Amino acid sequence: MSLPGPLPALRSQPKAIFFTDFDGTITLQDSNDFMTDNLGFGVEMRRKGNKDTLDGRRTFRETFQEMMDSVKTPFDVCVEKLLENVQLDPAFKEFQLWCKANNIPIVVLSGGMQPIIRALLSHLVGEAEVLDMQIVSNDVRPRPGKSINDEDGWDIKFHDDSEHGHDKSLEIRPYAALAERPIMFYAGDGVSDLSAAKETDLLFAKAGRDLVVYCEKEKIPFTVFHDFSDIQKVVADVVDGKISVQEAATGRN
Ligand SMILES: [Mg+2]
Fold first, then answer.
1. Residue 132's pLDDT band (boundaries 50, 70, 90)?
2. Which sequence spans correspond to the domains of the chain?
3. Which Gene3D superfamilies has this protein been placed in (predicted)?
């Protein structure tokens, strides 16, 4: 569900906007990886696809489509298994409350599927809180002649025609183009974040994950985080003017 009107995250005239990936960033486990590794073609083939995308040999759209195609489990069963297995970053809930108190909208930009994100966020963060959050993502659709809850019944429905499936820069750029605008942050962990990595003022990349290596290779400024308490400290310091986004972009340090 997107909010009505142009540039929804500007409606409260915030000092900052926090764009973020969902899987593996807000959650500890990536739900698409979990489905692929446990219900689909397994971790080895998935890692190969991820590496091909990071190295620029294949698009995220191609490798992600293959991952999802390998999962034949009915959609409702997938959601059930994810609710049992996926955990929230231990500091996200507090960060979310802090953002709300400080008028910093959180915009979730995800390569995952909308119903899974909503189900997990409602379960982990709370239904009322999720209604406040703008979530832009891919979606799910039934395969011809089937229902999504049939065996081999669902397919991923991509957000746009880009090679990313969901080009996260599409949502960020209209804000970036404004003459006067809020400070923009992005947090992510992996291959689904490549389309967003260069678009904001400060990028948080999860320690030990693929996005760190990618940013170093592409010389994209970033700072690492272990959980959302690290992010909250830095966002607070930047918004309060204690440090600049350039000073905050310390890479792995
Ligand atoms: Mg992710």
1. confident
2. 12-30+88-248
3. 3.90.1470.20, HAD superfamily/HAD-like
